[in-house]
Amino acid sequence: MASDQMKYIHFEKGCEPDGLSVQTTPVPALRSREVLVKVFATAINRADILQRRGMYPAPPGESDILGLEASGTVAARADDCTSQWHIGDRVMALLAGGGYAEYVAVPEDVLMPVPSGMSLTTAAGIPEVWLTAYQLLHLVGDLQKGDTVLIHAGGSGVGTAATQLCVYAGCRPIVTAGSQSKLDTALSLGAVAAFNYKQEDFSEKVLEFTNGRGVDLILDCIGASYYEQNMKSIKTEGRWVLYGLLGGGSISGDVLSQILRKRVRITGTTLRVRPLEYKKTLTQRFTQDALPLFKADSSLQLTPIIDSVFPFHKAADAHKSMETNQNTGKIVLQIRHEDTGKTLHDEL
């Protein structure tokens, strides 16, 4: 590298989107068995919005820079790296932080190859949502072939990924979303039914669709405001995976007895703060099972859904876009030109 300094997106805790700015900081030093990735693109996640607002700090010892995923090329390796990653390899990774920058240090065990023929900009839409969706379904949700799965926020990155993974696993995804365009996208990805939570009681529709049986598994990023409808929608002895609280975290009333009567298994899970060994296992399983299906010549192709792409210095606009909740799929922040590798900070 020509310099030991890099550009990154700076924020002050609690700031609005317009408080994001391009500033300079040292390139991260490599710790044991880490790889330095020259970042070409990252993507915006709800966690980034929460961290900017001061509500979701980075785990201890991890970068305070925003960004939970990145795609790029290998720029350097720690001396004790044992993997077969080479300088220039096209890679992508789930991060604990640091993606909104020209360079990021990544443990070698959580790197994944970018699928053949896929641009680095598109690849930035894979790590966080696809690994999250895979974890929710397989490592936590105990997905079984033939399951009917209720997926909330079906137009989100995780929602679009989970829908496709359910189809691949021989399951039946039912999706909720807040606009017809998001419902149409879900149906095009293989959802067997899609309901607008703004216009109808989705629990009634779910029970009608399943002939009163209910669903085997719920992927729930909403929480409190969906509790009653979820409890009606889930079958006896169903599984319920809670991974977000967009609708609040406080529930009052006859909660425990409902869980007891239906013998429902509710599991809460997060991914960012999981230990490295867990993320290594998740990455390996996803790489073996799902990643080959992103190739264009696959008989069942998985597709990262990209809503929009913003240049590096327009991070504020990217955050504003996510806060409107109008996106279907991922909002990508492009750090470098795909062809030249030059950084997109033309306003500097």
TrEMBL record:
Pfam family for this entry, one: ADH_N
Record-linked Gene3D superfamilies: Medium-chain alcohol dehydrogenases, catalytic domain (3.90.180.10), NAD(P)-binding Rossmann-like Domain (3.40.50.720)
One GO MF term attached to the UniProt entry: NADPH binding
Domain Enoyl reductase (ER) positions: 14-333
Keywords attached to this entry: NADP, Oxidoreductase
Entry keyword annotation includes NADP: yes
SUPFAM superfamilies with a match to the protein in the record: GroES-like, NAD(P)-binding Rossmann-fold domains
Keyword Transferase: no
Signal peptide span: none
Domain of life: Eukaryota
Protein name, UniProt field: Enoyl reductase (ER) domain-containing protein
